Amino acid sequence: MTPGDDSRAAALISRASVYLDERGIEQGRREARLLFELAYGKEVSWQLAHGDEIMAETGLFAGFVRRRGAGEPMAYLSGKKGFWTLDLDVTPDTLIPRGDTETLVEALLRHRPDRRSVSSVLDLGTGSGCLLLAALSEYPQAFGVGVDRAERTARQARKNAVLNGLASRADFVVADWGDPLNACFDVVLSNPPYIPKDDLPGLMKDVVAYEPGAALDGGDDGLDAYRQIIPTLSDLLAPQGLAILEFGIGQEKEVAAIAGQSGLSVVECCKDLAGIIRAIVLSL
């Protein structure tokens, strides 16, 4: 490392963090460091020791900073997102997996602690495949099916199954919620769209401008998907089967009411790490 190289690299990160802060990006310095690592494929500690190489490629970093400042999500810039114990590829065709959704996997493990107790899993609205693949990673004897309306999204989920060594135990189908599958499953998982239509413009700009609207728009009251999915569960669940569905803040009573009207029992309403009721467990 030549004298001053480390300070020049630090200055780049500092200027980028100010730029991101001014554009409303939370934790601007942390984001700037992550973008620096993305641009050079190395940790910041390596970069600080290779100032000449860094100075030669500042354009790539600057491009990432501009895109992040415009609101493009970090996961789409990197093409990667961790979920549960998995590393997933993500594209703008898929909703970015979130830690809140891991609440469903935790609930499944709590209610089915025996790893031999689940042999079949259905994921409705599979997106990146995160829920299905997380479940399969925990139940080594299980086979799973992921359903999504979009062909490109289903292809991305299939790619993630390959990346995580689960392709032999997963299949992906392009279909609607209510399309008959002519099969029963030990577990049905779903994180359907649940944002009321009128609330969509008020979401964070990196969500509303970049993530797929079809994965967010839950209709006038946010409950359209539940009215479609829940009545089909009596045909999709095997005896003693469980359905675990994610929903939005404050929607638990409405979702439970739809389940009751369909003859299903509420086993549990589950809180996420922030203490927010995030998911419901249903049985026949």
From TrEMBL:
Database matches in InterPro entries: DNA_methylase_N6_adenine_CS, HemK-like, Methyltranfer_dom, N5-glutamine_MTase, PrmC_N, RF_methyltr_PrmC, SAM-dependent_MTases_sf
Residue ranges constituting the Methyltransferase domain according to the UniProt record: 120-191
Binding residue positions for S-adenosyl-L-methionine: 125-129, 148, 177, 191
EC number(s) per entry: 2.1.1.297
Classification via Pfam families: Methyltransf_31, PrmC_N
Keywords: Methyltransferase, S-adenosyl-L-methionine, Transferase
GO MF annotation terms: nucleic acid binding; peptide chain release factor N(5)-glutamine methyltransferase activity
Chain sites annotated for binding substrate: 191-194
Domain Release factor glutamine methyltransferase N-terminal: 12-79
Gene3D superfamilies found in the cross-reference section: DNA helicase RuvA subunit, C-terminal domain, Vaccinia Virus protein VP39
The organism's place on the tree of life at top rank: Bacteria
PROSITE patterns per the UniProt record, alphabetical: N6_MTASE (PS00092)
Main enzyme class: transferase
PANTHER family referenced in this protein's UniProt entry, alphabetically: HEMK METHYLTRANSFERASE, MTRF1L RELEASE FACTOR GLUTAMINE METHYLTRANSFERASE
NCBIfam families: hemK_fam, RF_mod_PrmC
Name this polypeptide is given: Release factor glutamine methyltransferase
Protein species of origin: Acetobacter aceti
Gene that encodes it: prmC
